[in-house]
Amino acid sequence: MKYLVVLAFIGILASLASALFFMMRRGRSEQDDKAKGDHMARALAVRVGLSIVLFLCILAAWQLGYIQPTGLPASR
User: Using N-to-C axis directions, what is the helix angle for 30-64 and 2-24, rounded to 10°?
Assistant: First the structure.
């Protein structure tokens, strides 16, 4: 489970870096700017999708008992 989480975080960071790259790249024409915006939007959509999948995988692993919550004890 740890490897899945680490791989998902690496994917999320790579997608975010890709969006940053497309945002910083300069276009020579208006058509280049539109393509740049499309690439950036796709990279950010991939990041959101990976984040949702990671959350659902963690939730499923908790429900199946693969991971156990370890936090502060609930105060009464």
Answer: 170
The domain spans of the chain are 2-64
pTM, rounded to two decimals: 0.74
* Average pLDDT in the chain: 84
**Would you give the distance in Å from CA 6 to the centre of its chain?**
11
Task: Count CA atoms closer than 13 A to 10's CA, side-chain side.
Answer: 6
Q: Would you say the C-alpha torsion 9, 74, 68, 49 has a positive or negative sign? A: negative
Q: How many C-alpha atoms does 57 have within 13 Å on its Cβ side?
A: 15
